[in-house]
Design brief:
41% helix, CheY-like_superfamily, single chain, phosphoprotein, two-stranded antiparallel ribbon, 7 strands, alpha/beta, 5 helices
Length: 135
């Protein structure tokens, strides 16, 4: 059973997404908002995929508040985590947001919250885990 890291600052969203991933997807979900812990856990090799909210209110690193885009950039810069699949989660769904966020973060996918189609959500996660990331 693969372990996914969920970086989400809204407790309700975290609970709902965790339940979907665990009950319907069969995954183990670890939830974290602390950036140093996120980087460490991802570098350990214990995480199969990161689900990363773009707007984070409580995530700081080296005295600076970071959003999901910046955390994704840190993960991509580290050779130990550069190939880790990253899925951005966001309520930002304006025209152009998807392309802008994916380009800036180098994430693999972008999902608009709230997640409505659970089957498509889980299928995307399975596909990203199965396919090696092309850089």
């Amino acid at each position: 059973m693969a372990t996914l890291l969920l970086v989400e600052d809204d407790p309700t969203n975290a609970r709902v997404l965790s339940r979907i991933l665990e009950k319907r997807g069969g995954y183990t979900v670890q939830h974290c908002e602390d950036v140093a812990t996120i980087l460490s856990v991802c570098a350990s090799g214990a995480i199969a995929l990161v689900l990363l909210d773009i707007s984070l209110a409580h995530s700081t690193y080296q005295g600076r508040q970071l959003n999901g885009i910046e955390i994704a950039q840190l993960l991509r810069q580290n050779p130990q985590t550069a190939q880790l699949p990253i899925v951005l989660l966001t309520a930002h769904a304006m025209i152009g947001d998807r392309d802008q966020f994916l380009q800036a973060s180098q994430a693999d996918a972008y999902i608009v919250k709230p997640v409505i189609d659970y089957d498509a959500f889980l299928q995307l996660i399975q596909q990203l885990q199965a396919a090696p990331r092309s850089v």
